[in-house]
């Protein structure tokens, strides 16, 4: 398993405490989750029907403002796992630093993988991967620049796992263009990563292929019921986007007392540069607040946003020490 | 999508009624589900940790009485989807008639697929598939015969999706043998198919490969929490096995008034042969009881077991008409 946030078991092993004592800011998962509500007995017991899955797809098209074909999967990660089988093996280029699952998944399946650091360097690749906005540094790419790149690559995958709160960056409305494939995560913005739900949007050929590879029941009944309700709830999404925009800037203000510099971020997480990220992680862990550091970038620490007032206070307190 | 049970949307389209009015006997899913109980907020919101997934694997080893490596997936179907990538393409042979996803999944990935009707005819295949007990006809294969076949095939996949209530048929205790791969469904016996949970058990090489292809978070937090509890509950499993054994025979007795002949079955479903299965399906559908018929076998009708007393009465009533 590669290095990921959300590894609270590691935090517990090293610093003790019960899972429920920890404030996990090691991911970009919204800590004020969409209300789960009641899950019907049928959602637990029955195989999801075609029409139930179809209503989920329609809700995703609504939330992502597109009429492009869509397929639900067990998280954006599930789509990443299938990417190597979507086209004949060739050269993949990944705009890095970024989410660290693309390179190993493609390499393991026999793709030649090259990591590049500029958008233009993706041109010529059979498969080009861009995470927009990027994780962990929040770097953003203008939709028009991505569309200009599209004819210069075999297939362009844009991972919009963190785009919900910045919809102007999204290319879902263009997902019908051949060669363009958009991945969306449900769990991060809606704060329900344990539900395992994500989507791929693209032209019919790719989506039919991904759907066939995912099998007839790729997501749970609970994911369909809760996901559909959440994706149709425009009021919640708007209020949440506004809150995250406000509070992410608030987090930057709160850490100004530290010798930390903002590298970038999204409304769901911030990346700070500092002299010793491991020391900062340990300081936060002393107050049972878990953060994300990066083996290859010893000066980087990524922080998600606290949820409740109590969580914000606990963070303020440890930072003031 | 291939022909499957559980397609209540089709039943509704053709015969009307609300989903909740129907008694769905078109699958082999236990209608008296394991109690779901409360799902913690953390299970919904957080990414499952390595150690949480590990506890689920241990619970599966307990329930399936084995120390063999195991990997959790989104249903036995999720493992089927990965089979084509487990080994270099070659000839697959499937013992048929059986569950109709193996052939198309393997064919779509470029495998040469041959359907055979006797166990011995599997010998020589690179990949051999046996469902034991078999769906839909309940045919059973003795563990010793399967083990004798093992050295004569490249890889032997035994789908034990319906083996929970007939554990003497299971080869999970032998799953460590190289070349043997056992698939287990969680949702059928525990009546929680909407949870999307299943397992593959085998030697470390295969299981590590399947785990890598499934990605770091292959199942939901709810699947881990509920699955673990259920798989450790020996008392429930024993009582349920006893009830299903009793009631499946009770179903055979109940249909004796019809011109139906028992072909075979498992404690979770029965397959009956009759002059006109479509007419029988329509008769049952008139009482909003859904059953499974087979395009290629117009004389076959498969029935799952009703759950509550009310459901048994409704079935008895329509059969008496």
Walk me through the structure.
The structure is a homodimer of 321-residue chains. In chain A, helix 5 links the parallel strand 3 (91-95) and strand 4. Chain A folds into two domains: 8-33 and 235-319, Aspartate Aminotransferase, domain 1; 41-232, 3-Layer(aba) Sandwich (Aspartate Aminotransferase, domain 2). Chain A is an alpha/beta fold. The model of chain A has no long low-confidence stretch (mean pLDDT 96). The radius of gyration of chain A is 20 Å and the shape is globular. A seven-stranded mixed beta sheet of chain A has the order 2-8-7-6-5-3-4, with helices on both faces. In chain A, 51% of the residues are buried. The first copy, chain A, contains eleven helices and 13 strands. Chain A has helices at residues 8-15, 41-45, 50-63, 76-86, 102-108, 143-149, 204-214, 221-231, 234-254, 277-286, 309-320, and strands spanning 23-24, 70-73, 91-95, 112-116, 127-131, 155-159, 180-185, 198-202, 261-266, 269-273, 289-290, 292-294, 297-304. The interface between A and B is large, with 58 and 59 residues.
CATH architecture of the largest domain in chain A: 3-Layer(aba) Sandwich
- Secondary-structure element order of chain A, as H and E? HEHHEHEHEEHEEEHHHEEHEEEH
Task: State the oligomer.
Answer: homodimer
Give the overall silhouette of chain A: globular
The total number of structural domains of chain A is: 2
Major β-sheet strand ordering of chain A: 2-8-7-6-5-3-4
In percent, how helical is the residue content of chain A?
25-40%
* Spans where pLDDT lies below 50 across 5 or more residues of chain A: none
**What name does the CATH topology of the largest domain in chain A carry?**
Aspartate Aminotransferase, domain 2
Largest sheet of chain A: 7 strands, mixed
**Tell me, what is the CATH class of the largest domain in chain A?**
Alpha Beta
Structural class of chain A: alpha/beta
Q: What is the C-alpha radius of gyration of chain A, as a whole number of Å?
A: 20 Å
């Amino acid at each position: 398993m590669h290095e990921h946030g959300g590894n609270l078991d590691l935090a517990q092993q090293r610093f003790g405490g019960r899972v429920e004592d920890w404030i996990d800011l090691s991911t970009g998962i919204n800590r004020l989750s969409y209300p789960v509500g009641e899950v019907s007995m049928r959602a637990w017991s029955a195989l999801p029907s075609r029409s139930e899955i179809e209503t989920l797809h329609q809700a995703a098209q609504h939330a992502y403002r597109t009429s492009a074909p869509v397929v639900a999967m067990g998280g954006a990660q599930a789509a990443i796992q299938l990417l190597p089988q979507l086209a004949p093996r060739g050269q993949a280029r990944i705009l890095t630093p970024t989410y660290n699952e693309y390179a190993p998944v493609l390499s393991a399946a026999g793709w030649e993988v090259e990591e590049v650091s500029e958008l233009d360097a993706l041109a010529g690749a059979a498969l080009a991967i861009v995470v927009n906005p990027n994780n962990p540094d929040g770097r953003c790419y203008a939709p028009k620049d991505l569309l200009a790149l599209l004819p210069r690559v075999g297939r362009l995958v844009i991972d919009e796992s963190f785009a919900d709160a910045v919809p102007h960056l999204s290319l879902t409305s263009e997902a019908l263009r051949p060669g363009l494939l958009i991945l969306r995560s449900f769990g991060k913005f809606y704060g329900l990563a344990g539900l395992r739900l994500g989507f791929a949007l693209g032209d019919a050929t790719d989506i039919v292929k991904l759907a066939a590879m995912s099998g007839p029941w790729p997501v749970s009944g609970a994911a369909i019921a809760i996901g559909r309700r959440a994706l149709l709830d425009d009021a919640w999404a708007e209020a949440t986007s506004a809150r995250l925009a406000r509070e992410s800037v608030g987090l930057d203000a709160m850490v100004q007392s530290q010798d930390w510099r903002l590298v970038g971020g999204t409304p769901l997480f911030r990346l700070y540069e500092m002299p010793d990220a491991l020391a900062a992680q340990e300081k936060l862990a002393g107050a049972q607040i878990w953060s994300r550091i990066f083996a290859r970038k010893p000066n980087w620490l990524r922080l998600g946003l606290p949820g409740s007032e109590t969580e914000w206070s606990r963070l303020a307190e440890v930072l003031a020490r």
